[in-house]
Structures are given as C-alpha cells and as structure tokens.
Amino acid sequence: MDGFDVGERLRALRSGAGLSQRQLAEASGVPHGQISMIETNRSNPSVASLRKILGGLNITLSEFFEPDTDFVQEVFFGPDDLRNLTQRLYSRAADASGRITFLQVGDARAHNLQILYERYEPGADTGETMLEHHASEGGIVISGEIEVTVGERSRVLKAGDSYLFASNLPHRFRNLSDAEAVVMSACTPPYL
C-alpha cells in the first residue's frame, strides 16, 4: 500500500475546518475519544465510524482518500475503472477476514447517484453503531448472503434478494456466513 495515514489525514481535515477534536466529535455524533484514537493511529475505524465522522466534515470517503482526483466524465466503465473507496482503510491490517470493499462507479457527486459494487468477507460488519444519513438506498445481492438490519427489522438476504429503504432509518450490513457476499447497490444522494 502507499502508506496512506488515516489518522494524519483526519487531523489535517479537522484542523483545516477549524474544529477541535471535541467539536468534530459533537458534529459527528461520536465520542471525543474516538477521534483522538483514530488521529493517533491507535484505532482503525470501521467504515461506518469513519463515514459518520466524515459527515461532521461534510466530505465523502472518496474525497477523504482521493482528494485530488479529477474525474473524466466517462459513460462506460470496466472493472479496473471502479474507484476503491475502502482499500486504504485496511492498508495496515494483515488479516483479510471481516473486510468490506466498496467499488464506486464514476463520479457519484456529479450525478447525485452513488452506484457501488460491494464485497463483504466472512465476518464483515458495517459496525455496531448503525448507519443513518439523508438518502434513499437499495441493492441486490449478487452472491452469498448478507444480513440487513433496517430499524427494528432484520433479514438475511441471499443471491437474488434485494432491499430498498429510506437511509435515515438506522441500518447495518453483516456477513454472518463463511463465504463472501457480493451486493450491487445505489444511493441517492451519495453517502460514501
């Protein structure tokens, strides 16, 4: 990996926004200590936790990991053209179990639509802190199975099953099986 420092990048963005750790924690709805632990690289955040924190800075995972990327307004994309929004999040971890991979099609902000190819390794979990954001999202399970929890409802979805919900409802995705799960999803407006 290219040595991307998640903690240093978060610290630079927070400082650039003129926020203290405590102010960012309040804006993000996370404990103050969590910001400190991430910035000092004593804790690797889950995708859900990092996204929640970045919400307090009003930036996406894509902007966090690739701030200077200019998009060419393409129409068609091959597998190598998809943007990996999560590879730098796991760059320090040696074990691949429990990883989540989000590959994005094109420039989500330009189209106000985020289309993702998602892979969940066995044990992968978006986190105990449920995701909540202003959007609508849906997806189709391509292979494997994934437990989707929305509010008080939960179901294990298998290949061919799908979901659609208002993202302001607390939600979580977990792979409880021993095989990889693959999901194609869309979210508008973009969240990650």
Automatic annotation (TrEMBL):
Which GO cellular component terms are attached?
Answer: cytosol
Query: In Gene Ontology terms, what is one molecular function of this protein?
Result: DNA binding
Q: Which domain of life is it from?
A: Bacteria
* Keyword field: DNA-binding
What residues does the HTH cro/C1-type domain cover? Answer: 10-64
Cross-referenced PANTHER family, in alphabetical order? Answer: HTH-TYPE TRANSCRIPTIONAL REGULATOR, HTH-TYPE TRANSCRIPTIONAL REGULATOR PUUR
Q: What is this protein called?
A: Transcriptional regulator, XRE family
| The organism's taxonomic lineage, starting at the top | Bacteria, Pseudomonadati, Pseudomonadota, Alphaproteobacteria, Rhodobacterales
